[in-house]
Amino acid sequence: MAESLRGGVIGAGVFGGYHARQYATLPGSVLSAVLDTHPDRAAQVAMPLGGRGFTDMAEFLEAVDVVTVASPATFHAEHALAALAAGKPVYIEKPIATSVADGEKVRAAAAAKGLTVACGHQERVVFRAMGLLDVPEQPLLLEALRHGPPSDRSRDVSAVLDLMVHDIDLALAISAADPLTAEGEGRLSDDGVWDLARAEVSFEDGFTAIFDVSRQAPERKRTMRVVYPSGEVEIDFMARTFRNTTPFALNAEFADTPAGRDPLGASVEGFLKAVRGEAPRPIVTADEAIRALDLALAIEQALAE
To answer: What is the Cα Rg of the chain in Å?
Structure first.
């Protein structure tokens, strides 16, 4: 590979634009190409950043060294598999796929070619910057609330796969135990997807995680409470502050760290370091992304029941 990795982004929507800017600004990478079914949209994202717009997958893949999949979630696995088949390491926006079987196909394709796969669960970067991934106690309870107003974005999947999956990944990241059961209730939108959902997941060691998501709220709200035997941590993700009554020294200035200021940048940079062999793994691996997806789909099943 060239010294500067040529980054390519599949999907010229809002998140595709975010990823294109990361490749254009991170050291050791350039934005080379953006693929979208709408040529004007692809060009509008790519050209100001020095790249080119494409509508043909094969031509796009010839122009890049690494690929970010930022297309609608229902296409994540298809687009990731195409990139991996061409020998390109892949960063996939969450969720990694919309079925566990498809997620496992992505993992197997990457393993067969020795290629890096990362997934964009960016809140993991925030937890790491705070120090929560290093707390030496197992949690007793996690309560997460993630609400937002109606939007046309991500209507191809439910609020569970769009919003709740962030907090599912965080719960799995801080617990050494496996989930046992999931219960939930929700409300379907007019187009037949879950827009409101509340779920309770019980883990093998007694840890309980409660998730509350809405895509019909009057305003955005992102909060979390994690209870440990020695105290608790209350986080306001919007204000980027937390209250800590545990004896563990968390970083109150996490929002001013490079990772805290730009979690997406830190996540993409971690992917690029793994691709170059400068890090043993990306921040969120395919295995971890599939585990989060598996629990998210179990919660959707509980909502349906």
So the answer is: 19
Q: How far is CA 265 from CA 4, 67, 183, 185, 246, in A?
A: 16, 15, 35, 35, 30
Q: How many helices (H) and strands (E) does the chain have?
A: 11, 13
Q: What is the pLDDT of residues 68-123, one digit of tens each?
A: 999 999 999 999 999 999 999 999 999 999 999 999 999 999 999 999 999 999 99
Residue 274 in contact with residue 118, Cβ under 8 Å? Answer: yes
| Amino acid found at 288 | E
Structure confidence at residue 1 (pLDDT): 45
Q: Peptide bond preceding 136: is omega within 30 degrees of 0, i.e. cis?
A: no
How do residues 144-190 score in pLDDT, each as one tens digit? 999 999 887 767 899 999 999 999 999 999 999 999 999 999 998 87
Tell me the pairing of strands 29-35 and 194-203: unpaired
* Three-class DSSP category at 92: strand
pLDDT of residue 156: 84
Single-letter amino acid, residue 225: R
Distance CA 101, CA 107 (A): 10
Edge-to-edge strand order for the sheet containing 208-214? 179-188, 194-203, 208-214, 141-147, 221-228, 231-236, 241-244
How far apart (Å, rounded) are the C-alpha atoms in residues 226 and 123?
15
End-to-end C-alpha distance for the chain, whole angstroms: 50
Q: What is the pLDDT of residues 189-206, one digit of tens each?
A: 877 889 999 999 999 999
User: What CA–CA distance (Å, rounded) separates 75 from 79?
Assistant: 6
Which residues are paired to 66 by β-bridges? 7
Q: Which of 160, 238, 152, 155 is nearest to 196 (CA)?
A: 160
3-state secondary structure of 208: strand
Query: What pairs with residue 64 in β-bridges?
Result: none
Contact 31, 20 (CB under 8 A): yes
The first and second tokens of residue 117, run together, are 């796969």
pTM across the whole model:
0.95
What one-letter code names the amino acid at 229?
P
Which residues in 75-217 belong to E strands, given as ranges?
90-93, 117-120, 141-147, 179-188, 194-203, 208-214
